[in-house]
Amino acid sequence: MPGKLLTRPRASAQGALTKVSEQGRGLLVPAKLRAIDKARGRGRHRPILERTLAFPLARRWHGGANPRDSSAYRLWLAIFFVAHTVRGWASNADPDVASPKFLGAQSCSSSSCHGGAGNNRNQYLVWSTRAFHHLRPYATLETARSERIAAVLRIANPVQNRRCTVCHAPFQTVPAGQLRQEAKISEGVSCENCHGPSENWLRSHTRPDWSTEDRVHAGMRDLRNLYVRANTCVACHQNVDSDLQQAGHPELIFELDGQAVSQPRHGRRSMDRPGPQIWLVGQAVALREMSWQLARENSPSDKLTARAAGLFWLVQAASKAEVQWPQIEPDAFAPTADQIEKVQLWSDQFAKGVSEFRWSEEQTRKCLALLAGTGGVFGETRIPAPLHARRAERLVLGLDRVVSGLGSAAVDIALNRALDRLFDATQSLPDFDPNQFADNLKEFNAGVSRILDSK
Ligand code: HEC
Ligand code: HEC
Ligand code: HEC
To answer: Angle formed by the axes of helices 385-405 and 434-453, to 10°?
Structure first.
């Protein structure tokens, strides 16, 4: 798709200066789950991924928006079923059984809860006055553009069709019994679509004697956990079925850090993990999703293949910044079922590994040096230009996040100009010139060396 591809999310360098907090580091598994946890090896996140259905798209996770559709996983699931039906746990593996209800945003909106002013009380106001996820996604379905997309797909009314509402107005796809009357479809992407259906935790989640594990056990998502957070957002922000795209739906590029910065912020930024870490977890999860889509489509388009290959290249390159992270061979990406599954599994493991990692400033610097030093790659003539373009597209988004992760050190006019030129060079895919980009990247890299050396 020609035309505008990337906009640079301009977070202030300050906004990205965060201290590594313990808060986001995974979950302790609640006692009741420990036995299952052992069976799984490491099941820290299963309370979220397998127990609760926060919005219907979660079915895609169950159906395999991640390695959970691999044959190994299915085998595991079968064993799990047999072992735990007896103990009454079967419902946990089946998202349709006894799923808790969605109560709607108004249950969060009283002024003494999240509809007030001030510190940690204003989430409802932030969400309802700044409409990324509130009125806008729903309203989009009523635009002329949606009408055109729908006409191509022979969809009568996008506002009532789950092919659209699953992302733009997820309450529309929730079975009536799971939706309290007050929950309105026009809420668009509502609190519970990210935080989990609140029936079992609404009344208790503020109790001082409830721990994070208790809340998660009751179905609240631990969005401080980066892996969980990335899974939540990526479900709507990366894969769009090819026929939707051919009908004119915009191509989606998932980038967790930048999108989380530009999404109306309602959590406490100061408690969050460093931006570059958030970015990398998001990219790995996006790669897992894209390889899932590749595996699922019978004859994936060259475009989809190139996009996934470009992202694979980036994540693989970044994985070299830390030996403890799961590794994969640089040439592992190939459009065969085996290789795609391998990439899918690896990217999921990698995302988990990075999300649990203690990310230091040193890590940010290593990552930056590594990525900025990839200029030589763009001179390789055996790589087709469209693939170079897809690599570049993801690379510049990443450079931007890693640079802002340096905080005040990155307030360097020349470096930022060089970064702007990299963004300009990736604006139009058909016009992408790998040699030009390689030159721009070398210039940028010189700026990076200057900054890293001066500290
Ligand atoms: C249930 C689906 C869904 C989930 C989950 C979701 N989004 Fe969105 N988001 C959307 C839709 C649909 C839009 C498009 C709104 C419109 O119509 O313009 C959107 C728009 C946005 C936008 C503005 C457009 C853009 O891409 O820059 C940002 C930023 C964003 N979302 C960030 C996030 C983040 C961060 C998360 C996870 C914490 C998240 N979203 C989770 C569906 C979702
Ligand atoms: C997988 C989730 C998903 C599905 C399914 C989906 N969308 Fe979207 N859609 C999004 C997201 C996310 C955006 C925001 C893209 C951005 O701003 O970068 C978006 C953007 C759009 C836009 C452009 C909005 C703008 O202001 O630029 C239109 C129009 C649209 N969607 C219509 C539809 C229609 C019609 C359908 C059903 C045929 C549909 N979408 C299905 C996630 C989805
Ligand atoms: C698009 C997804 C999304 C939507 C919609 C959403 N949130 Fe959040 N929310 C998040 C993420 C991500 C965080 C960050 C986790 C963190 O840093 O603690 C968060 C954090 C929070 C926090 C914790 C703040 C803190 O400092 O610990 C509260 C409370 C909250 N949200 C309430 C709400 C309410 C109420 C609504 C609806 C009015 C809502 N959220 C809608 C994604 C979302």
So the answer is: 20
